[in-house]
Design brief:
Blueprint: E1 2-7, E2 15-20, H1 27-37, E3 50-56, E4 66-67, H2 74-77, E5 84-89, H3 92-95, E6 104-112, E7 119-123, E8 125-130, E9 137-138, E10 149-153, E11 157-161, E12 168-170, E13 173-175, E14 177-180, E15 186-188, E16 191-197, H4 244-261, H5 264-324, H6 328-337
Parallel strand pairs: 1-5, 8-9
Antiparallel strand pairs: 1-2, 3-4, 3-5, 6-7, 6-16, 8-10, 10-11, 11-14, 12-13, 12-15, 15-16
Helix pairs in contact: 4-5
């Protein structure tokens, strides 16, 4: 992960830095490496309680003077790209939960439960809520875990379940991560809370390294277009030429037999043979034509059924394609309602 910062080194000159770190590196790790990389401090050991202080921030309402928690990683610390930071030592007072963690960026209100009516200020960055002594917001509800959830205040407010026993409920449904607005309520055990952002700049572009999302990615199976083969057309009939040779051969043979036998009956008998040949030719032509008409009828019926099948498949494919790539208007309509076009629910999210 790469983040650009400006390091203020009084009395030395300010340096613009491009810090490349693992997203799980803690604030203490980053501060220690910045101390070791400073040529003016070369050779001197880093203090044990070294941390980062945000001197100037151009997002998050211009917060300044916030000292980041040493044990928070980069994703949870609330550090923004472009911030002006300086190295500082954390006092024991700062280590006390909820003590002087910077100006309030949001307010957490308890609406029901053993601690009903209480309000807690949330600074920019990450705060933990639960029953443990070292959490930022300590509850007396016995159904909450020691570290029940993590609340991150940035360009948006996000709550994440930290493997608690009873989980989080939002609108009666279990969630593991959700982005909150001032009208949302979340239940932890028997305690219901709401978080109201203070002076959040709605026009600010997202600059936090934390990627916000409220559900798993949308998964839609791709349409597998079946292959269809159109029916074959009728077979072209074979060309049958007129049998001239078979017609002339009996006549020639009858003339030869009459010349030898001088019997007129042989001539009559041979003249009947061409009649049989012509009759056979005409009958073959008529039978071929009937077969061709029958094949053409079957082909037209097959084509009509194939066309109807293709129209039905076209409707199915169109419906599936619209599910794969919904229109802009349908997508925009699903945003305020958090409709199914925005994502696919996880198996544990029923309903």
């Amino acid at each position: 992960m790469r983040i650009r910062l400006t390091l203020r080194r009084d009395p030395a000159e300010t340096k613009d830095l491009a810090v490349t770190v693992d997203g799980l590196a803690t604030v203490a790790d980053i501060a220690t490496q910045l101390w070791a990389a400073d040529p003016d401090r070369k050779g001197s050991p880093a203090p044990e309680n070294l941390s980062l202080r945000i001197d100037e921030a151009f997002v998050g309402g211009g917060l300044r003077g916030s000292v980041l928690t040493r044990t928070d990683n980069l994703l949870e610390s609330g550090l923004r790209p472009g911030s002006v930071v300086s190295l500082t030592e954390v006092s024991e007072l700062f280590n006390a939960p909820g003590a002087n963690r910077g100006p309030a960026a949001a307010t957490l209100r308890i609406l029901s439960g053993p601690d009903v009516g209480q309000e807690f200020s949330l600074p920019s960055g990450t705060s933990y809520i639960g029953r443990d002594r070292d959490v930022d917001i300590r509850l007396s509800d016995p159904l909450t875990s020691k570290r029940h959830a993590r609340i991150t205040v940035g360009e948006s407010v996000e709550i994440v379940d930290t493997n608690s026993a009873n989980g989080l409920l939002m609108d009666g449904r279990p969630v593991t991560r959700a982005t909150l607005n001032s009208s949302d309520t979340v239940t932890l055990g028997e305690t219901t809370v709401t978080v109201v952002p203070l002076g959040r700049n709605q026009a600010a572009a997202p600059t936090s390294p934390l990627v916000d999302f409220n559900r798993s990615p949308r998964v839609v199976p791709r349409f597998d277009a079946p292959k269809r083969v159109p029916p074959a057309g009728p077979k072209r009939p074979d060309h049958q030429p007129f049998p001239y040779i078979m017609l002339m051969a009996p006549l020639l043979m009858g003339g030869i037999m009459f010349a030898v036998t001088r019997n007129i009956l042989s001539v009559v008998f041979m003249m009947m043979m061409p009649l049989f040949v012509v009759g056979h030719y005409v009958d073959h032509k008529m039978q071929t034509r009937r077969q061709q008409k029958e094949q053409l009828r079957i082909f037209r019926e097959s084509m009509a059924a194939f066309r109807q099948e293709m129209n039905e498949l076209q409707q199915v494919e169109r419906a599936v394609r619209l599910q794969e790539a919904p229109s802009v208007s349908d997508t925009v309509d699903s945003i305020p309602n958090r409709g199914p076009l925005l994502g696919t629910p996880r198996p544990e999210h029923t309903g």
